[in-house]
Give the backbone structure.
Amino acid sequence: MISLIISLIGLWIFFKLAFWVFKGCGQVIAFLILAVIFLGVLGSLVKLWWLIIIFLGIGLFAQKS
């Protein structure tokens, strides 16, 4: 449970960082790279792959709004 909370917080931070630093299409690519590295370091990539899809969807929806 704690690793899930840490993963969510880490992905949220990387989401904000990627969309603040990079512009355009590079935002999505940068976020995916950071998220995969972060989840890989935690060893949770297999269990939490769906979080990447959720955050990517949120990012694309927010960018269109």
In short: The chain has a mean pLDDT of 71. The CA atoms of residues 12 and 55 lie 8 Å apart. Residues 2-64 form one domain.
